[in-house]
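The methods section describes the discrete structure representation at length, but only in general terms. An entry of this sort, consisting of the sequence and the corresponding backbone structure tokens, reads as follows:
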Amino acid sequence: MNSIFKDLKVIELANVLAGPAVGMFFAELGATVVKIENKNTNGDVTRTWKLASEDINTPTSAYFNSVNYNKQHLFIDLTNPAEKSQVIELIKTADIVISNFKLGDDSKLGLDYESLKKLKSDLIYAHLSGFGKKSKRTAYDLVLQAETGFMYMNGTKESGPIKMPVALIDVLAAHQLKEAILIALIHKLKTNKGSKINVSLYDAAIASLANQASNWLNAKHNPEPIGSLHPNIAPYGELFSTADKKQLVLAIGNDKQFKNLCELINKSELIQDPLFLSNSNRVKNREKLFTLLKESIRQFSAEDLMQKFIENDVPAGIIKSVKEVFEQAENETLILNDDNDKRVKTAPFLIEFQ
């Protein structure tokens, strides 16, 4: 798998997270990825996005390292004709260009699709924007989370809107761009023709609202902040404490799972209770149900309870810190090491080629 794109050449004219994440996807799978960084600003801005605990003298941040694995880096002044010519020569032999220029900057530099396809007719040109290809707005993930409903839904009534701790809109947009590029590669194999791709963070966010979007479009349900609770399912998202002070969540999706849960925690009487006979009943009466369940769950240790749940198909999970996640032995295969820097694989899937 790590050599599937060994004959592919990608020029990355993008910085921060979404564009570089797409470049790293191809680099991780064997492509030659050349990242062009602005020498006048000391490269990708995320090189300086360091934690308070990071060494200020190191050239890169942990943030930068997360999406810049296995790339070649060229520091270039694109406004300098001699230096820009180096990039042009690279593009002439490239398969894919990834860019996230601000509106109009690509044309000013002669690095827009219309200019570059004259140099290489089968070029796949993949561009990321924040709010669409006609908008000048500077886009950061936090702003997108605010303007696409994610922050409004996230949090609780007491906390108010809260952003997610991962730049999720960037991640979602990166996946959209990867999918579009892969489609363009299939098209190129069939026709020997290139493609121009545009993905905006805004559209990627809206497309990812999933059931919350359809809840509004079909039922006029405007999602309110309800913490980890699910508006359509119960018990789902409530936090339960165990005898050994661990916290866990339940994700009960059907009546059989609810029946198994009740039997395992010695609350069989709830199975036939009219208040909880169906998922709809449980959603309407979730607060009462939570009170009844939490008293029983706190009688068990987390390990014992999780073993019972797993053996009896009761979806549940222990709340773990990131530290705890990466202390689990099975996650070691998802970690990449590059010059003493560590990062998580961007392509964790397995494919068996026939």
About this structure: Residues 265 and 296 are 6 Å apart (CA to CA). The two ends are 13 Å apart (CA to CA). The chain has 15 helices and 13 strands. The chain has a mean pLDDT of 93.
